[in-house]
Amino acid sequence: MEPGDAIDRARALVPLLRERAPEADSQRRMSDDTMRALTAAGMFRLVQPLRFGGHQLGAETFVDAMVEISRGDGSAGWITSLTAAHNKWAGFFPFEGQQEMYADDGDLRFPLVVAAQGQAARVEGGYLLSGTWDYVSGCDVCNWLGLTAIVAGPTEGGRPAGPISVVIRASEYRIEDNWHVEAMRGTGSKRAVVDGVFVPLHRTISLGPDGEPVGRGPLDGPDEGFFALPMPPLFACELGAVAVGVGRAFVELCAERAQAKTSPFPPCGVLRDSETVQARLGRAAGTVDRAHRVVAGVARDYDMAARASIPFYDEIETRRALIAVQGAVLDVCSAVESLGTVAGTSIVREGEPLMRAWRDLIAIRTHYLLDSDRTSLNLGRLLLGLDPVSRN
């Protein structure tokens, strides 16, 4: 698959995703049929390694495709983006583990919970995993799941040995339905419960204090530099692409609405003829386009570093990339709010696509990785020669 083909395939799914978005919102999960359509279009193989049957197209193509999917439905974009990109995270695992993950059907639908919410006890040949993990987006339709757990220390009550990332099959956890929310309902981001599941060593990796995998993964071919780069800039691009896509949908839907909606107050014209609506629509469209360029630019830098196999991302550059995406998401949210206030009160009606998009953007903005105050603080400390206070 070529980059243009990937984007065309994603764009072709927009009408279907918009048609199914109300059902996903009411059911609080993606339908199996929608997952099959996304899988058939190759959306989960965009950055998957060539050696495992993927397309390995890189971060920029991934961003552009996820913008289109999210333009169809923010929840579908969220699940697709936050599972498909984790093919890169899988690249950090031992080769035997990767072979096992891709062996079932070749597609790795791979939510990843990076917060350590469970425990792992060391046993012969691996770990026994137990605990609960919240915010497992797409848990109803994925085939594997990545979790972070704390390894108990050598003595009871002693200091933990540290965090690990593990991958388990969808059949090895049960879902507790605690996803009763006002936005991003269709993501089905429920709780995964694991009770003493054995995880072999080849499906585990040790994590450092920064949450990054310790050491380089086994994908070391001449064209596989993408799989050696740190995760945070790509994590941010996953989120940024969804926000841009939802913002673009909001602009498009507002433009359609303005063609026919009339105001009941003098001069009682069509919204299309209002200079205020025209100006805010143009400003919102330009702002969303600019945000897309920013996120795609961060992804392009990521791809350049991968091709050159250079250690481009130190702590300072990583945080600069995060701040760029965080700013882009903030701009999209501000543009949508400004445009939404002139679209008419009827957009708040139940089931209204504009309201769903607006709510989804508010939810996206709350993600931990999009906290610009914390990232800015840490970048400032680094520029002053001080240690950061947190990992992002």
Mean pLDDT over the residues: 92
Q: Using the coordinates shown, work out and report the CATH topology of the largest domain.
A: Butyryl-CoA Dehydrogenase, subunit A, domain 3
Instruction: Name the helicity range.
Output: 40-55%
Number of self-contained structural domains: 3
Q: What is the CATH architecture descriptor of the largest domain?
A: Up-down Bundle
Radius of gyration: 21 Å
User: What is the highest CATH level, the class of the largest domain?
Assistant: Mainly Alpha
Which of globular, elongated, flat, extended, rod-shaped describes the shape? globular
Query: What is the subunit arrangement here?
Result: single chain
Order of helices and strands: HHHHHHHEEEEEEEHHHHH
Strand content: 5-15%
- Describe the sheet with the most strands: 7 strands, mixed
Report strand order across the widest sheet: 5-6-2-1-3-4-7
Task: Please count the beta strands (DSSP E, at least 2 residues each).
Answer: 7
CATH superfamily of the largest domain: Butyryl-CoA Dehydrogenase, subunit A, domain 3
The helix/strand class is alpha+beta
Detail the poorly predicted runs: none
Our measurement of the CA-to-CA distance between the termini, rounded to an integer number of angstroms, reads 34 Å
Characterize the structure shown.
With 392 residues, this protein is an alpha+beta fold. The chain is globular and about 75 Å long. The two termini are 34 Å apart. The longest helix has 34 residues. It has a 7-stranded mixed β-sheet with strand order 5-6-2-1-3-4-7, with no helix packed on it. Helices cover 47% and strands 14% of the residues. The chain folds into 3 domains: 90 residues, Acyl-CoA dehydrogenase/oxidase, N-terminal domain (Butyryl-Coa Dehydrogenase, subunit A, domain 1), CATH 1.10.540; 97 residues, Butyryl-CoA Dehydrogenase, subunit A, domain 2 (Beta Barrel); 155 residues, Butyryl-CoA Dehydrogenase, subunit A, domain 3 (Up-down Bundle), CATH 1.20.140.10.
